[in-house]
């Protein structure tokens, strides 16, 4: 724990507030280990039960994580705003940053022409009583999903995929409920599950999606919801195949009470067919966001689902944020309908595929196994994350440590390929091979 910050308090509430203040100020940064319960209790002259209650409250709110004998530490993304000075510094000058998980800005379609056209045709201001999902947007979304075999009897919009997942979990589950999530999986989702006080159950992932045996085990452990990434899974690049989808549908057909959530965030960028699970359970939702193909600033996702689930999500939005901006809806519609934009998205998908497959091939040539069937990321299993991240940083490459993506999965690191050029592939593959298989130390003889 940081020597600059001392946890204080005489009650569980005061101790948890003190830890939160340290996180908020940045003096208890992400991954900081907190003192053992008995040690902190002795320092504060309180009972161990008081400290345990404080840690339990922090854990239920998603601020800290606990792993038995491994202790308690601040989560990588605790759900509390921190001061700007506490944010992680950017990679060192000269280091190529492959840690972000974001699309290449140069491959995103330009929004300016569509915004200009929208400004000229938007019409009179919209009133509070007439807002919601625009009929023309709903119609276009239905056609796009139906073309991929997704049932779309009921549909709404959310402010992105994670916003939709948060609303779905909040509408169906209560704190303490177990949720089956991919392991390794999307770090933001794991942090969201923790912040909602839900209990994650990790489901192993291979190149074809969530393992059937893992899903079966999660269901046996009482999982009330299952979240599946359809394609371009983050961080492994997995995509659900036809055979895996058929096996999962057979398994899930016996669990009509389960909330099934599918996230197809990559959409057109994935470059492989969609094999949806939608409709196999009574409560289900299929999400497709606009951020990856069209730009992170387009905070819009289409959510299709059963009547009850969609009504709950839309109803909860109505008493909160209200609706997704109709200006944003019209912009998304213009992008969907523009053949030029479709061509740019297709080019981006092909470019990511070329960069990803080239890196995988170069790594394989050097005896390094990695995963990345679709999307913009490559998952690299490693014996030790710290040494791999350090060695690659020293070689000029910043990558994301796998700990933020894992529950019980083996160690790994994530490399985002969106910023790579053809000239980067060989130097990067060489650096990875050296990081994982360093040469023996040089010995000198007299």
How would you explain this protein's 3D organization?
The chain has 446 residues and is of the alpha/beta class. It contains 15 helices and 15 strands. The protein has helices at residues 12-25, 37-44, 48-60, 112-121, 135-146, 161-172, 187-195, 212-220, 242-252, 291-294, 307-318, 326-337, 339-365, 385-394, 425-436; strands spanning 64-66, 72-74, 96-97, 154-158, 178-183, 199-206, 209-210, 225-229, 259-263, 283-289, 301-305, 377-381, 397-398, 400-401, 412-416. The protein has an 8-stranded mixed sheet, with helices on both faces. It has a 3-stranded antiparallel sheet with strand order 12-15-14, covered by helices on one side. A two-stranded antiparallel ribbon has the order 1-2. Helix 2 packs across helix 3 (48-60) and helix 14 (385-394) packs across helix 15. The longest helix has 27 residues, at 339-365. It is globular, with a radius of gyration of 23 Å.
């Amino acid at each position: 724990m940081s020597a600059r910050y001392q946890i204080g308090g005489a009650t569980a509430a005061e101790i948890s507030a003190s830890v939160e203040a340290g996180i908020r100020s940045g003096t208890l940064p992400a991954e900081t280990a907190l003192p053992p319960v008995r040690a902190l209790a002795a320092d504060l002259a309180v009972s161990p039960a008081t400290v345990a209650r404080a840690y339990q409250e922090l854990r239920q709110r998603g601020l800290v994580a606990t792993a038995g004998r491994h202790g308690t530490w601040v989560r990588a993304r605790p759900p509390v705003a921190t001061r700007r000075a506490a944010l992680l510094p950017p990679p060192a000058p000269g280091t190529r940053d492959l840690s972000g998980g974001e699309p290449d800005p140069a491959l995103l379609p330009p929004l300016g022409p569509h915004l200009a056209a929208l400004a000229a045709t938007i019409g009179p201001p919209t009133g509070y009583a007439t807002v919601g999902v625009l009929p023309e947007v709903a119609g276009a979304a239905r056609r796009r999903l139906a073309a991929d075999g997704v049932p779309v009897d009921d549909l709404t919009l959310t402010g992105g995929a994670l916003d939709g997942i948060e609303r779905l979990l909040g509408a169906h589950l209560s704190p303490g409920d177990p949720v089956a999530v991919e392991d390794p999986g999307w770090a933001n989702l794991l942090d969201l599950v923790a912040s909602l006080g839900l209990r994650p159950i990790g489901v192993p992932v291979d190149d074809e999606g969530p393992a059937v045996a893992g899903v079966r085990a999660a269901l046996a452990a009482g999982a009330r919801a299952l979240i599946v990434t359809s394609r371009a899974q983050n961080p492994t690049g997995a995509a659900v195949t036809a055979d895996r989808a058929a096996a999962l549908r057979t398994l899930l057909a016996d669990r009509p009470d389960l909330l099934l959530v599918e996230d197809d965030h990559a959409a057109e960028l994935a470059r492989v067919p969609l094999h949806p699970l939608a409709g196999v359970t009574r409560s289900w939702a299929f999400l497709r966001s606009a951020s990856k193909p069209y730009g992170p600033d387009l905070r819009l996702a289409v959510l299709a689902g059963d009547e009850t689930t969609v009504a709950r999500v839309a109803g909860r939005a109505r008493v909160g944020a209200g609706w997704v901006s109709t200006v944003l809806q019209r912009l998304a519609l213009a992008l969907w309908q523009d053949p030029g934009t479709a061509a740019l998205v297709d080019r981006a998908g092909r470019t990511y595929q070329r960069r990803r497959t080239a890196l995988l091939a170069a790594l394989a040539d050097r005896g390094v196994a990695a995963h990345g069937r679709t999307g913009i990321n490559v998952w690299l299993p490693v014996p030790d994350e710290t040494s791999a991240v350090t060695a690659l940083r020293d070689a000029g490459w910043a990558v994301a440590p796998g700990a933020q993506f894992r529950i019980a999965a083996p160690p790994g690191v994530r490399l985002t390929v969106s910023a790579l050029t053809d000239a980067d592939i060989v130097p990067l593959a060489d650096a990875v091979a050296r990081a994982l298989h360093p040469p023996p130390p040089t010995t000198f003889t007299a």
